[in-house]
Amino acid sequence: MLVLGLSFDYHDASVCLVKDGELLSALALERLTLQKHDFDYPDLVINELLRTNGFTTKDIDFVTFHEDPFAKFNRVVTSALSHFPKTKREFQEVSRVWPGRKFWTLNRICRELIKRPDQIVYFSHHYSHALYSFLSSGFSDAIILVVDAVGDWGTCGFYRGSFSTTGEAHVKAIEEISFPHSLGLVYSAVTEYLGFNPNDSECSTMALSAFGQPVYKDFFSRIVKLTEKGFEVDTSFFHFQDFYSGGVSKRFEDEMGPSRKKGEGPYPFHSFKATQLVPELNQDDQRLADIAASFQEFFEEAMLHLTKIARAHLGSNIEEACLCLGGGVALNCLSNTKILKSKLFSRVHVPIDPGDGGSAVGPALYLSSKKGHALRGANEGYLGCAFQDNTQFDAESFNYSDLKKYTVSDESPRSIIVEEGLQNGDLVSRVAGLIEKGSVVGWFQGRSEFGPRALGNRSLLVRADDLSAVARMSQKIKKRASYRPYALSILQEDAIKFFDMPKVLDVGGDRVPWDNFKRMQFVAYANDIDTSVIAGGLHVDQSSRIQVVFEEDNSLYYQLLVKYKEISGVGAFVNTSFNESGFPLVERPIDAMAFFLRSSMDVLVLNSNVYIKEW
Amino acid sequence: MGFIGKLRRRILRKRLPQVLKNFNAVEDDGVWHLKQAFHYSDSKKAKNVLLQHILEERHHADVLKRLYDLESRQRFTPAHFNRARLYSDFSDWKTMAYIHQGEIDAVKKFSKIVQASDHAQLKSELGKIIEDEEGHCHSTDGLIADFGVGKRDLEKELSRIRRIRFKQNWLTMGNKIGLFVFDLFATLLYFLLGSLFFGYAKRRMAQPKPANDQMQSLEGPV
């Protein structure tokens, strides 16, 4: 049985293929269209995944969809009318897109894929998140907490997941909090208030929070009340329903001051503590950093509060309490870590893409389970496409001097040396040596990662103690704000050495939940030792969103780290996503090559071929 | 400058940020098609040319974004494009013909903006882009000739592309007028429904809603 899982039409459209219970592939549309958070009908991805796996549309038995369009339509219309007469524009928008298109999404799927209506199965949005979160966890019994901006009606939901003795999955809803009470929307509104793009740059809010003090936490406690069932938002401080009026309301700005406007420049903070750079602050920079810090701290408390409610739902006679987190809010690694450290649960799982991209996967897996198939590969991370290096252009006759006009860094190499066909041992030796010499290396291998994190197949790598190289990566390659920290890929023994690894309560005592540190979903704080060798991967508060690399997860990447440690003495380097600012992770070789040529990247490794710029 | 010229200038000044945003998206769309051509092409020579184009077009998109940032008070969020394969079976020369026509159109549109604008930096930056695009027209022309395509076949394909573009432009304009009329209708409907159902909607918003854990199809629960 072949199931095609779809999510599209709001943001982060994605597709997955599940064959007889095995998750074969998953890919977000943005990777092929190069438009971040692309939401269109993902026919490009459908065709690509079917072709790569040797199927056609005729082979598809079922198609699952991540949302209930009818419930969502109900919500958007009710929301617009309930805020009459302030929501004229919103109602116009609803009228434009729903009757003509979104209401008929499921019919469209039937038409495009030539399927019968009974072959299209849809789930509510939060349920889709819950399914992926649970089914990818490996837990036999768990409570699931889903928190995001809004799905159909739900903004926060509690579910219980389990497997029967026959191996069939059961996921039941317990309770849900509905729109407009939404923690996710509050986070997005605060993100916009701070001058960042909502639904995209919430990570910037998190990064900025390290530079402030939580002096305004009481304000957020007042406007988002934590209750017995969850929380309630005082929506007079926001424009959740009349969203064309902005994120926060005038009432919010009257109390907290004006929002960050375009033209006020980037925040002057620097994430490397070791650079000793003293930012030139104005009063407003610090005020806004304090607001970020206040909100982040409140948000973590709110998530912990929800976790306690989840724990109560699980009951007390559970030997091993397991929690699955889902929804876009589960990308907040600071709050995830707080939950982990609370020891309310002995095991916590976050799927590799807890956001809307991942919501395509859970329904497909669940349907497969219900149809009697044992699930396999549900927690796989490298689910995208693999490519041959087809970028061989005529490097000798290429006009390098012209590159200066077209690169982001006003530099151009004299030439590019191409070393082809390096096999594993030679490849890792060569690349480890280049990293050790201070090169910024674009590393492109195998199948791409599913979700927003680069985990060693689509990564930019640089040595973590060379702060000038890290700064060059920020300014001339990634075009990234200085207050945003980088993350580390690190070997287990070095993680133990440099970091105070969080522990959870287990039957035999405390243990480090290594599974939680494989995918940059949790943070660790550096020990009180000399960490200058990893300074480039630490935030100003000495935290790092580490990826502990094990051989069984990514053998080649692991070997690279081991080799690098042999040469440099440190089993860690900075790993950041291989993408240009404003664009998704590179998916195909040409995306990587174009970025390589446009930027100050020194080396590009495409499978077994190494391209080295001669400056 | 005549009345029409002054009017054009005034309209352009008002719409300039949106125009720049749209052109940024057009350039990025061009990059996408060039990358598709690169990805599927087998010719090393074509790849060299395509790579140069990709870098230049991407640079143009950056320039347009920079100009937008100067002209607009809003933060830049890219305009969305529906990415669609041009041809179900990839064809080297037909894709290049599409790109070639795109370069010709770009030169015309940017030239009109340069004529209508009195903004020195805009004129200068767009002037450089026009020079590049004219260069692209020559190189795509050369590349198509290298594929061994006859002039007649090429003209036929370019003509087909021009007809599609013309139709798309008309549809876009018609769509704008249609949307305007539709919005008027939607506004009337909003005031009618709002005044009748405002209370009910407010009560509905406040009601708790049960979580949905059903598998459903268009034919009912699964």
Radius of gyration of chain A: 24 Å
Task: Report the C-alpha radius of gyration of chain B, rounded.
Answer: 23 Å
Main beta sheet of chain A: 8 strands, mixed
Number of helices of chain B: 5
Helix/strand order of chain B: HHHHHEE
Number of strands of chain A: 25
Distance between the termini of chain B: 69 Å
Number of strands of chain B: 2
Low-confidence stretches of chain B: none
Distance between the termini of chain A: 54 Å
Shape of chain B: extended
Number of helices of chain A: 19
Please describe what this structure looks like.
The complex is a heterodimer of chains A (615) and B (222). Chain A has 615 residues and is of the alpha+beta class. Helix content of chain A is 33%, strand content 19%. Chain A contains 19 helices and 25 strands. In chain A, strand 1 (2-7) and strand 2 form a beta hairpin. In chain A, helix 6 packs across helix 13 (361-370) and helix 8 packs across helix 11 (283-314). Chain A is globular and about 65 Å long. Chain B is mainly alpha-helical and 222 residues long. Chain B has a two-stranded antiparallel sheet with strand order 1-2. In chain B, strand 1 (216-217) and strand 2 (220-221) form a beta hairpin. In chain B, helix 1 runs antiparallel to helix 2 (44-71), helix 3 runs antiparallel to helix 4 (120-146) and helix 3 packs across helix 5 (151-206). Chain B is extended. Classes of the chains: A alpha+beta (615), B mainly alpha (222). At the A-B interface, helix 3, helix 4, helix 5, strand 5 and strand 7 of A face helix 1, helix 2, helix 5 and strand 1 of B.
